[in-house]
Amino acid sequence: MDRLLVLCRHGQSEWNKLNLFTGWKDPDLTDKGVAEAQAAGRRLKALGLGFDKAYTSALTRAQHTLKLILGELGQSDLETVKDQALNERDYGDLAGLNKDDARAKWGDEQVKIWRRSYDIPPPGGESLKDTAQRVLPYFDTHIMPDVMAGKRIIVAAHGNSLRALIMKLEGLTGEQIIARELATGVPIVYRFDETGAIVERTDLAA
Ligand SMILES: O=C(O)[C@H](O)COP(=O)(O)O
Fold first, then answer.
1. Residues annotated as part of the active site
2. 103 annotated to a ligand binding site
3. Residue 77: count of CB within 10 angstroms of its CB
4. 3: annotated binding-site residue?
5. pLDDT at site 76
6. pLDDT number for residue 205
7. Of the residues 25, 89, 103, 182, which should be mutated to test ligand 1's pocket, given the most ligand atoms within 8 Å of the CB?
């Protein structure tokens, strides 16, 4: 039985390109982001991978990425579940602000704390810990049971919602996961044994 889980951060978004805090705001992919998603699909196809079900967030950039990947795989009709539990971390009052402008206003250290501390939320937003507290129950009750039942699953989501998943899957601490940067449009392939232990992890960087 193949217990396959592929995680993929969306391709570059319009707001990634503009260097804006995004969170739950809903920009689409840039042309580069489209190309990254298509390349991700081609890499998966070259490995002979296909899926039985897909999960994505309620945000356009992740849904569009998934659609492009599935298009490359010839699986455009795949059963897909969209849920805001998989959304990016809510950036609160920072959403829409330029990251360099924020550093000029509040200082490098404060902005780094908001972006990369585990449990300190940005004003009005979610910390990574808060994000994990909504992502992980969804993962445990929806996604992992599918994987363990032998369904081959792909999840297209976001830098911080995927960090929360990776932290749990790989047994990392808060300190360890905040140091992990996820590239846009790079699938991470996991396989599990019958106990749910990881037997393979491969990053499909271009
Ligand atoms: O929401 C955002 O702005 C990005 O997708 C992730 O931001 P980060 O690199 O600050 O975690």
1. 10, 88
2. no
3. 7
4. no
5. 98
6. 86
7. 89
Distance CA 67, CA 159 (A): 18
ipTM of the complex: 0.95
Q: Which residue has its alpha carbon closest to ligand 1 atom 11?
A: 115
Residue nearest to atom 9 of ligand 1 (CA): 115
The ranges assigned to domains in the chain are: 4-203
Residues of the chain short of pLDDT 50, as ranges, are none
Dihedral, CA atoms, 170, 173, 179, 184, nearest 10 degrees?
Answer: 40
Residues with CB under 6 A from ligand 1: 21-23, 88, 91, 115, 158-160
Assigned superfamily of 4-203: Phosphoglycerate mutase-like (3.40.50.1240)
Dihedral angle computed from the Cα positions of residues 59, 65, 68 and 69, in that order, rounded to the nearest 10 degrees: -130
> Does the predicted model carry a pTM greater than 0.90?
yes
State residue 128's pLDDT score.
97
Q: How far apart are CA 195 and CA 119, in angstroms?
A: 30
Other Cβ atoms within 10 Å of 143 Cβ, number: 23
Nearest to 160 by CA among 174, 148, 146: 174
For residue 83, the model assigns a pLDDT of 98
